[in-house]
Specification:
Blueprint: H1 8-20, H2 23-30, H3 34-48, E1 53-56, E2 59-62, H4 64-91, E3 97-103, H5 108-118, E4 126-132, H6 135-142, E5 148-151, E6 161-165, E7 168-172, H7 177-180, H8 187-191, E8 194-198, E9 216-220, H9 223-231, E10 236-240, H10 241-249, E11 254-255, E12 263-264, E13 267-272, H11 280-293
Parallel strand pairs: 3-4, 3-5, 8-9
Antiparallel strand pairs: 1-2, 5-13, 6-13, 7-10, 7-11, 7-12
Length: about 300
Amino acid sequence: MKAPRVTLDQWRTLQAVVDHGGFAQAAEALHRSQSSVSYTVARMQDQLGVPLLRIDGRKAVLTEAGEVLLRRSRQLVKNASQLEDLAHHMEQGWEAEVRLVVDAAYPNTRLVRALTAFMPQSRGCRVRLREEVLSGVEEVLLEGVADLAISGFSIPGYLGNEMSKVEFVAVAHPGHALHQLQRELNFQDLESQLQVVIRDSGRNQPRDVGWLGAEQRWTVGSLATAAAFVSSGLGFAWLPRHIIEREIQDGLLKILPLDKGGSRHPTFFLYSSKDKPLGPATQILIDLIQSFDTAPLDAPFPAPQQML
């Protein structure tokens, strides 16, 4: 890729001419001589081979090509300025990226609210979000490829910040054979039916959390797939209530009337990596995740803002 012929300083100069209404005004704003500003713009036009300005009376106005190029150049100059700011923040210890791994059962809505609030404070710090299931979260954290982790398990050797509980409920389609019994259900009733379970994304020690040892078991890769299967009448499953609330309201799923164990409430924890100290951006994100963790799921979202 060939090097650009026009510099960022030249684009800034052209912007100043247009924004301040002329060469003299731009020269005053840039603390340069008028001849220097005029030469810079004339040199740009020669380098680009396209006229950017035309004289209309005593005023220089943009040509059609100039309007298009100036509009694109504003984003270019803005990106360059943000890049310089990011370098400055990194020099002060600000992270370029925070890597976050989350159990797929954790409410997405709370996470989105936290990340929305983080954006205007991020100073260019990126967030790399990764979803795993069950022990997959623990493995990613232990492998050192995550700075923060949200898991429904207690991870040995780590002190996690306790967060909210997530309700899992046993459900099946209203037309499922279990609901046709029209009575309170027990463990033996479930054993003879197809149970849909979500595959643990961990590779080393995958867990069969929630499996009852049913004669028939279908294993799927995501909570959304499990919800789709069960909503279609295929088997029963324990699923996070916040994910299937709409299906329950629409009559596609119905909570099973179990005599015990019909709902589970695992506590989730927020962990941080032990491989490196927490940077300021990571600490801000931790505080926001914990803050929005206790907010109602139907609370309004924070208004999105531009990055500072």
